């Protein structure tokens, strides 16, 4: 008897295989638009057929084969209408094409090709998240803290520039790899972050994206072993991943860092992350990812939340904000400063930030206001935080915190 295939089953295959399928099809046809459209067509076909036929033995193979066949059929139709672009793509696909070069992993190769210097940094990251991570425009917009319409235009313009400028999709030469590195690291970090705290949906974590980001991070570290920031990012992801199992309760509710059972943290990942951080320190070539990894290492050193060395974390954030003076870094620094100097000082630092669309800003502000017994303001801040996240686990936690304000008697 064929096992029933649900929408959730198809969505799971999409999350895990979309990036791989697009990567393979870009290598086949040499064109992102053709690859993405073909993969989308294949998943539409899967949604129609799999509920009746059951899940194929190799869902990834089914998607890639179906996508390739759909693309070739479309190109053949277009080629008969003297569409020279379709004719060229068809020839490209039908040749036995094997590309040699330093990057041999399909998905990592797609990241490098999207991170072409002709595209702006934000466009590089957004396009790769769309193609490799299979993230929706809404999810990417939230990662960038911009309106969805703005992000849609950015992705469309990036694709248009690729087509107009005839940017080649090929493996970069060894000499070109360092220039592409910063965009690639940003992509991996955002893929991991979207997996670590999903911007929407019922679940807090998307394990598939975390796993894929770490896998690609390891491949990149093998490819560029002398780049300390590559290792810094890998250490950061490993140390954050070590806490994944404790970030939610039995019902899927969010557990903040202070409430997590540290005995259940993955010690093997912590040890590996610490080992990488120590090696980075010996190199003495600090960068933003290495410093963030060092901050994560300090957190993982503490046997309990109360034992956290917040003074050391503030010192590390002072270094980080000098290199990367962004509002989000300033927000995280304010959290650490509040632990050392008190909530009033933390609130003063938050007042300098413009992060109205960023839910953690409002959540942090609410917690600091609550410590100062300014409950009415704290309630309004929690309401703003709830309004700025679509993740149900985060919303549930924030509503719980808001409920405690309404249920607690006013301070005497």
* Share in β-strands: under 5%
The strand order across the widest sheet is 1-2
Q: Uncertain runs with pLDDT below 50, 5 residues or more?
A: 95-103
- The overall average pLDDT, rounded, is 84
What is the CA-based Rg, rounded?
Answer: 23 Å
* Helix percentage range: 55-70%
Q: Please, how many helices?
A: 19
Q: Span between N and C termini?
A: 67 Å
| Structural class category | mainly alpha
Number of strands: 2
Total of domains: 4
Overall body shape: globular
Written as H for each helix and E for each strand, in order along the chain, the element string is HHHHHHHHHEHHHHHHHHHEH
InterPro entries: DUF6596, RNA_pol_sigma-70_dom, RNA_pol_sigma70_r2, RNA_pol_sigma70_r4_t2, RNA_pol_sigma_r2, RNA_pol_sigma_r3/r4-like, WH-like_DNA-bd_sf
Keywords: DNA-binding, Sigma factor, Transcription, Transcription regulation
GO molecular function: DNA binding; sigma factor activity
Domain RNA polymerase sigma factor 70 region 4 type: 111-161
């Amino acid at each position: 008897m064929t096992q029933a295939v649900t929408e959730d089953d198809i969505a799971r295959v999409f999350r895990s295989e979309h990036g791989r399928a697009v990567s393979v099809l870009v290598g086949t046809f040499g064109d992102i638009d053709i690859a993405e459209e073909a993969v989308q067509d294949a998943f539409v076909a899967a949604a129609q057929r799999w509920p009746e036929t059951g899940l194929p033995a190799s869902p990834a193979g089914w998607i890639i084969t179906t996508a390739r066949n759909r693309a070739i059929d479309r190109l053949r139709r277009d080629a008969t209408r003297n569409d020279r672009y379709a004719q060229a793509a068809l020839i490209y696909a039908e040749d036995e094409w094997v590309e040699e070069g330093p990057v041999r992993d399909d998905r990592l190769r797609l990241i490098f090709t999207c991170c072409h210097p002709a595209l702006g940094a934000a466009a590089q990251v957004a396009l790769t998240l769309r193609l490799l991570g299979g993230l929706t425009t809404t999810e990417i917009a939230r990662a960038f803290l911009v309106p969805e319409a703005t992000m849609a235009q950015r992705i469309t313009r990036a694709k248009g520039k690729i087509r107009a400028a005839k940017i080649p999709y090929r493996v970069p030469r060894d000499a070109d790899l360092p220039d592409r590195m910063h965009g690639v690291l940003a992509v991996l970090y955002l893929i991991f972050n979207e997996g670590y705290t999903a911007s929407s949906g019922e679940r807090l974590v998307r394990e598939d994206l975390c796993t894929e980001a770490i896998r690609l991070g390891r491949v990149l570290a093998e490819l560029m072993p002398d780049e300390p920031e590559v290792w810094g990012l890998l250490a950061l992801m490993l140390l954050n991943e070590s806490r994944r199992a404790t970030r939610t309760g039995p019902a899927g509710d969010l557990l903040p860092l202070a409430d997590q059972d540290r005995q259940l943290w993955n010690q093997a990942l912590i040890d590996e992350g610490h080992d990488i951080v120590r090696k980075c320190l010996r190199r003495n070539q600090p960068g933003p990812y290495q410093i963030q990894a060092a901050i994560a290492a300090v957190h993982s050193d503490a046997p309990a939340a109360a034992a956290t060395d917040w003074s050391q974390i503030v010192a590390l954030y002072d270094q980080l904000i000098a290199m990367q003076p962004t509002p989000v870094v300033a927000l995280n620094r304010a959290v650490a400063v509040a632990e050392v100097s008190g909530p009033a000082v933390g609130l003063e630092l938050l007042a300098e930030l413009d992060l109205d669309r960023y839910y953690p800003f409002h959540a942090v502000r609410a917690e600091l206001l609550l410590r100062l017994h300014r409950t009415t303001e704290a309630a309004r801040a929690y309401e703003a935080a709830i309004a700025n996240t679509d993740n149900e686990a985060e919303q549930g936690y924030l509503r719980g915190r808001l409920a405690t304000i309404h249920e607690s008697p006013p301070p005497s």
